[in-house]
Amino acid sequence: MLDLICSLWPHKKMLNKIQRKRRIKLVQGKPNIKVGSMWLKTLLFAILVFLITVFFSYKVFDGSNSFNYLLTINEQNDQISELKDKIHKLDLDIQLIEVALSKKDAELKKSKEENNDLQEEILFYEKIVGKRR
């Protein structure tokens, strides 16, 4: 394509100079990026679309009921944790009562053994002495 342009253009040297200047200009020049306020407009538009979408979904899906549902879940989680604490305390109370009952059972067994021993002694002495009436 360059040959076609060169054959049509009478001055080859001038074309080569222009191409060389363009190459030098591209290499030496700083990139020129136009930022402007377009990115700001795009960002604001995206935020606006997001807010409209949130509002629309809140209205369509009845967000107040959903929010209330989430609040009741949170309240029920709190109640569950309170009930677990009460259950833990009651388990500790039951364990203490079981320990007390086991001690009472041990004392009762001991007193029954003593009572049996005393009754055996009474029977023994009654046989020796005789019954009193």
What is Rg? 51 Å
Q: What fraction of the residues are assigned to beta strands by DSSP?
A: under 5%
Number of helices: 4
Number-wise, the strands total 0
- CA-CA gap between termini: 148 Å
Query: Approximately how much helix is present in the residues?
Result: over 70%
The chain-level mean pLDDT equals 82
Order of helices and strands: HHHH
Summing up helix and strand content along with how strands pair, one would put the structural category as mainly alpha
Which stretches of 5+ consecutive residues score pLDDT under 50?
none
- The biggest beta sheet, please? none
Shape: rod-shaped
Domain count: the total is 1
Layout of SSEs?
Layout: H1 2-8, H2 12-28, H3 38-60, H4 63-129
Account of the 3D structure:
By secondary structure, the chain is mostly helical. It has one domain (33-129). It is 86% helix and 0% strand.
